[in-house]
Design a protein that fits this description.
316 residues; alpha/beta; six-stranded mixed beta sheet; five-stranded mixed beta sheet; globular
Length: 316
């Protein structure tokens, strides 16, 4: 059962996911919304539709101006699921307003669409008044619901960044915005290996993660560790992308700081560095490779053995 939780990155319950029985591919992540919105099954089999089709219709600015969704053509788009009642949402919105301004001032074609999860139209209007971008009208509940279904939204705030063709670049827009306040890496194509930080540590809860702990007091140690892991990470990501599936592992390098110390304490890991681990928070399981020297061959064998279910987990 835990394998299914990890495979489909389940973070909330109840969750209902529809699959294509022939291919095993995910048809729809938000089955509960499907049942609510289409109780008679008129849209069965509920397969994903293009972003342009789902978002089609009028979009609002907070001054009351209305634009057609066709105005988004040729632009990168951020689809922002948020609500005024959610404190992390309000914090992210303040940062995102500045990011939006910097990206536009740099001459990039970028637009954000606010998809509200507010509990009243009054609350929506109050919150939207702080935003310089577009929104799906609050009264268009069907379109808001279809966008939630399209991206399988399980929590807010969530920022999905799309390329001009409407394809997903990253589902981790929140993390990217917080990590790149100058927006130098926009549109934030995913990196195969991340340096673990306060802002991206939330991703440790999204499924199994390979974490290589290093002694960051040694100059260049973190960068060398990233270079060591990257070829293996790229190989795994490419393999699953070819199957149109998400990679079964995220890859991190962790230096020495308070957040990393807390993670070691929580997972009861030894203080050794370097220390190669796979942490599976949802299964409360860890896999530890404590060797003096970590080589690409050791990392690749460790990853392949994990994916082949040859490793014995220790409890977290």
């Amino acid at each position: 059962m835990l394998k299914l939780w990890n495979k489909y990155r389940i973070s909330n319950i109840p969750s209902l996911i529809f699959l294509d029985a022939t291919t095993g591919k995910v048809v729809c992540r938000n089955g509960l919304l499907v049942i609510r919105d289409d109780p008679e099954g008129l849209e069965f089999p509920w397969g994903p539709k293009p972003f342009r089709e789902v978002v089609a219709g009028p979009l609002l600015r907070n001054n009351g101006q209305s634009l057609e969704s066709s105005s988004l053509e040729g632009s990168h788009v951020g689809v922002y699921f948020s609500a005024h009642w959610c404190p992390p949402c309000r914090s992210l919105t303040r940062v995102l307003v500045e990011s939006y301004r910097k990206i536009k001032e740099a001459g990039q074609k970028f637009e954000i669409i606010f998809v509200s999860a507010d509990r009243s139209e009054e609350s929506f209007k109050q919150y939207f008044s702080e935003m310089p971008w577009l929104a799906v009208p609050y009264t268009d509940e069907a379109r808001r619901s279809r966008l939630n279904r399209l991206y399988g939204i399980q929590g807010i705030p969530t920022l999905i960044v799309l390329d001009p063709q409407g394809e997903v670049i990253t589902r981790q827009g929140r993390v990217e915005v917080l990590n790149d306040e100058d927006c130098r890496e926009f549109p934030w194509h995913p990196k195969p290996v991340l340096e673990l930080s306060d802002s991206n540590a939330v991703q440790l809860n999204e499924g199994p993660c390979l974490v290589l702990f290093v002694d960051s007091e040694d100059d260049g140690e973190s960068e060398a560790a990233k270079q060591l892991i990257q070829p293996i990470a790229e190989k795994i990501i490419a393999k699953y992308k070819a199957k149109e599936e998400e990679a079964p592992l995220l890859f991190f390098v962790a230096g020495e700081d308070d957040m990393t110390d807390s993670l070691r304490d929580y997972t009861n890991l030894p203080e050794a560095a370097p220390l190669l681990t796979i942490l599976d928070m949802s299964a409360r399981a860890k896999y530890v490779m404590d060797v003096e020297e970590i080589t690409p061959a050791i990392v690749e064998t460790f990853v392949n053995d994990f994916l082949a279910e040859k490793l014995k987990p220790e409890p977290i």
